[in-house]
Amino acid sequence: MTERRVRRRARSGRWNPRRIARILEAGGELARAELTVRRDGGRRWRAALGVRVDPDAAAPDVVKDEALRVAEALATASRRSPGSHRCLVEAVAAIRMLRRRDIPARTYIGGARDQVGQPVELHAWVVSGPVCVAGGAEQNRYQPVVAYDRSAGAASRAGR
After folding, report:
1. In which order are the strands placed within the sheet that holds 119-128?
2. Exposed site from 84, 103, 113, 136, fewest CB < 10 Å?
3. pLDDT of residue 158
4. Of the candidates 104, 124, 123, 129, which has an alpha carbon nearest to the alpha carbon of residue 51?
């Protein structure tokens, strides 16, 4: 790669050291979340997501630029890591990264139904204010069934 091209990429922010650190953190959290989801039959990932709340209750409306950066880092790390990560794994990783930054978030788990009305599949997504941090591409197809709230100032350190 030519020196000119390297300088152009560095100016564009693609090689920003903080961005690269977030992507590496996201890759580590995705691997850690995969282990958490596979173990213990759900006890640990539920604790990581936070306190169960009514899905229709108002979510914290906090807008933070860092939530957008976390979403971008998770999407990049998920695309570049081997294998495919399930939506629940991405949700657990997103919640942990947001918690580390003291950003409140809510995780929704919803279900889609077929023409007969029988539940077909489940999907998890994480929302922080108006920003969908993980799983947002398909969230409109699903009706929220349960929600977990992880507020920024929570005293619980479960799932960290």
Report:
1. 51-53, 143-150, 105-113, 119-128, 131-134
2. 84
3. 42
4. 104
